[in-house]
Each structure stands twice: as structure tokens, then as C-alpha cells.
Write a structure and sequence with these properties.
By secondary structure, the chain is α/β, with parallel strands linked by helices. Helix content is 47%, strand content 22%.
């Protein structure tokens, strides 16, 4: 009887852990916006700080990059509170094949400030991301 209870509890904990990990990567939980080309272009044209995050749900590097960016933005709301992140799931049927002149690929962050593209970044270093947001 104890083995059955232990087995059932183990399964429940595993299901909860998987569900929690999946929820943690949602755009909403990370503070990102779903891809909206009109809103993104408007924010860029208005000179706002914008990051376009292209990623794929199956890509572990993408998930790490997204978590690092989200954590950076949340660490200092006074500095980064105005940054808008638009996330493009490259496997989504509505995903563009290009953003500006760039082909869309996974694990890419495109930084904009003052209406201009500042950097295209494929890494996962917090300090480098912070530098592109200045």
C-alpha cells in the first residue's frame, strides 16, 4: 500500500514539475509580449528600446537566453522598465520569415534603441545583453 501511495505521489510531483517548467517559459511569465509586427514597428519608430526575441519551444539554448534576458530586465525596473520585448516563436504559422532585412532564426535577440537597430545577438551573457540596452 505504501509503495502505491509513494508511486502516485512521485507521478503527481513529476507532472507538477513539468507543468511548472513549461509555464515558466511563457511570454507572459517572462514579461515578454507575443509577436505583433505593428506594435513592434510602432515602438521602434517611436524610438523606444525594443528587443525582438526569436526562439523555438524545442530549443534549450533559446530557453536559457530568454530566462537570462527576463531576469536582467526584472533586476532593475528603474533602468529596464521601459524595454519592450516582442517574442517570435519561429515555429508559429504567423512568424515572419524576415524581420527588417534579417532572416528569422532561433536564439536571436535584435536590439533597437532610438529608432535604429543596435545589435543582433545570439549569445547568453547578461553583461553583453545589458550593454546593448544602454
Amino acid at each position: 500500500m505504501m509503495k502505491r501511495i509513494s508511486s502516485v505521489l512521485a507521478i503527481l510531483f513529476a507532472v507538477f514539475a513539468i507543468g511548472t517548467a513549461a509555464q515558466a517559459d511563457t511570454n507572459e511569465n517572462l514579461g515578454f509580449m507575443d509577436w505583433d509586427p505593428v506594435a513592434a514597428q510602432e515602438a521602434i519608430s517611436n524610438g523606444e528600446r525594443v528587443v525582438i526575441n526569436t526562439w523555438a519551444t524545442w530549443c534549450p539554448f533559446c530557453k536559457v537566453q530568454r530566462r537570462i534576458l527576463s531576469s536582467l530586465l526584472k533586476t532593475d525596473p528603474d533602468t529596464y522598465g521601459d524595454v519592450k520585448v516582442f517574442a517570435v516563436d519561429i515555429d508559429d504559422s504567423d512568424a515572419p520569415s524576415k524581420i527588417g532585412s534579417k532572416s528569422v532564426s532561433k536564439t536571436t535577440l535584435i536590439f533597437y534603441s532610438g529608432g535604429a537597430e543596435v545589435a543582433i545577438y545570439k549569445g547568453n551573457k547578461t553583461e553583453e545583453m545589458a550593454g546593448f540596452l544602454q
